[in-house]
Amino acid sequence: MSQPTSSITKESMLTRRGFLALGGTAVGLAASGSAFHLAAYAQSLKSSGPITPFRFVQLTDTHLGYVGDANRSVMGTITMALGQIASLTPHPDFLLVTGDLTQGTASDYERKRRLLLFKQVLDASKIPYYTVPGEHDALMDRGVLYQMVMGDLHYGFIHKGVQFLGLDNVSRGFFLGREQLKWVKRQLDMMDPATPLMLFCHAPLYNVFAPWNWYTFDGAALRAMAARFHRVTVFYGHVHQMMSHRTENMAHWAGLPTAWPFPEPGDLVKLQPWPQGATHPYLGLGYRVVDVSASGDLQITNLLLSEVNHGTVLG
């Protein structure tokens, strides 16, 4: 198979230095989402009905179980993020957690323990949540333990008139695969293309930087399936930094991690995080707040753990 090409621009990423200057940033985008709940197969998806405005938060790359200098307390940064999210006004309806919930391990026992602990932490937050796997959660056993603890690898749901599809592009490698693509096509065929479509997954659905596995091999096939939709938004993780990109009718948004930031691709031979600094221990760590309007437009606000000011940023 041919190696996918890279698609990166300086404008679509943040540098290490840029993180230090970044506070809460808001970007308005005319986009929204669609999918459906597994229990509602009999429900017609031709129209999801009017949209009731709501808020959700994207959390990603928490890596619970990691021990090392990149983050000396991953539980601490997860807890900090969830505490800040719980204090948001208005309160988010749910969390979208886009993979690498835990740090990968070859031990089935330890992997299950970490997944169970992560679920316990999320449950204790009292905020409803939806998760998809990252390669650290699911690649070692093709998602067997992830499914036991967290649920399906791919699925859909409707929330207040907006449809979401959660995708698995990591459990067998960085691709979706024929069966999942067939499933996606069946769901999209039942949807009105005028309905905004929202997807969430771990790896990017376009080719960011192939040498670091920042791509989905068959992402173009999914993008082609969704080409008839007027507006499509993708939320993903994996790259440990904010990115935004557009392909055809899709807006792609990479979320801030809570574990550690990665450098920009291209300049380094080996992908590795920076040691956590004493002066800026939360450098590049954060989460994303998404406000969905009645028209389906999105207001996107990226918040750093170290610089959150709810009164001025989110008022």
Verbal overview:
With 315 residues, this protein is an alpha/beta fold. It has one domain: 4-Layer Sandwich (Purple Acid Phosphatase, chain A, domain 2), CATH 3.60.21.10. It is 22% helix and 20% strand. The chain has helices spanning 16-21, 74-86, 108-125, 135-138, 144-149, 178-189, 219-225, 310-313, and strands spanning 25-29, 54-59, 94-98, 129-132, 155-159, 162-166, 197-200, 232-236, 243-247, 250-254, 286-292, 298-304. The strands form two sheets. Strands 1-12-11-2-3-4 form a six-stranded mixed sheet, with no helix packed on it. Strand 2 (54-59), helix 2 (74-86) and strand 3 (94-98) form a beta-alpha-beta unit. The termini are far apart. Mean pLDDT is 83; it is low at 1-47 and 309-313.
The shape is globular
Strand content: 15-25%
Uncertain regions spanning at least 5 consecutive residues = 1-47, 309-313
Please state the average pLDDT score: 83
Assigned CATH class? Alpha Beta
Q: What's the β-strand tally?
A: 12
Summarize the model shown.
With 315 residues, this protein is an alpha/beta fold.
What characteristics describe this protein?
315 residues; alpha/beta; Purple Acid Phosphatase, chain A, domain 2; six-stranded mixed sheet; 8 helices; 20% strand; globular; disordered N terminus; disordered C terminus; Metallo-depent_PP-like; Calcineurin-like_PHP
